[in-house]
Write a structure and sequence with these properties.
By secondary structure, this protein is of the alpha/beta class. It is built from five helices and four strands, in the order βαβααββαα. β1, α1 and β2 form a beta-alpha-beta unit. α1 runs parallel beside α3 and α4 crosses α5. The longest helix has 20 residues. The relative contact order is 0.14. The model has no long low-confidence stretch (mean pLDDT 95).
Length: 122
C-alpha cells in the first residue's frame, strides 16, 4: 500500500508489542482501541490503568514516528479524560454523535462534541 501512495492505519490495542509491529510494518498511523477504557470508565482504578496504557501507547507511537488516532466506545461522558492522552490527531466517535443526534439534532450533537474536544493540549 505504501508503494501505491496509500497511507496505512492499523487499529490496535495500546500494547507495546502491537505498536512496535505497526511501525515495523510501515504504517503511518495507528488507531488506539479505546474500548477497554470505555468499558472501565465507571471503575476508577481500572479506568486509570486503561488511561495509562493509552498515554504510554501514544507516547511510544509518536517516538516511533507514527501518527496517533483513537476510538471505540467514546462518548460524551468519557471523552474529556482523553485530554490526558498526548499526540492524538483524530478521534473516531461517530456512533455516540449519531445516537445523541436522535434527541438533540445533528448540528447540536456535533457542536457539543466539538466543545468537549476544545482545548485539547495534544
Amino acid at each position: 500500500m505504501n508503494d501505491g501512495g496509500i497511507e496505512v492505519s492499523m487499529f490496535i490495542a495500546p500494547d507495546p508489542a502491537q505498536i512496535e509491529a505497526a511501525a515495523r510494518a510501515g504504517s503511518q498511523f495507528i488507531e488506539l482501541h479505546t474500548g477497554a477504557y470505555a468499558e472501565a470508565f465507571d471503575q476508577e482504578r481500572e479506568r486509570e490503568a486503561e488511561l495509562e496504557r493509552l498515554i504510554a501507547g501514544a507516547r511510544q507511537a509518536r517516538s516511533l514516528g507514527l501518527q496517533v488516532n483513537a476510538g471505540h466506545g467514546l462518548n460524551y461522558q468519557n471523552l474529556p479524560l482523553l485530554h490526558r492522552v498526548p499526540h492524538l490527531v483524530e478521534l473516531n466517535i461517530g456512533h455516540s454523535i449519531i445516537s445523541r443526534a436522535v434527541m438533540a439534532g445533528l448540528s447540536a450533537a456535533v457542536r457539543e462534541m466539538l466543545g468537549l474536544m476544545a482545548n485539547y493540549p495534544g
